Amino acid sequence: MHPDSPEFQAYQAILAGHQELKALLERIDQVLAARSSGIGEACHLLAQLGDQLVKHFALEEREGYFEEAVLHAPQLVAKVNRLLAQHPKMCTQAQSLVAEATTRSGHQDWWDTTRTLFLSFREELLRHERAEDRLLQEAYNLDIGSHD
Ligand SMILES: [Fe+2]
Ligand SMILES: [Fe+2]
Question: Which one of the ligands is nearest to 22 CA?
Answer without folding.
Answer: 2
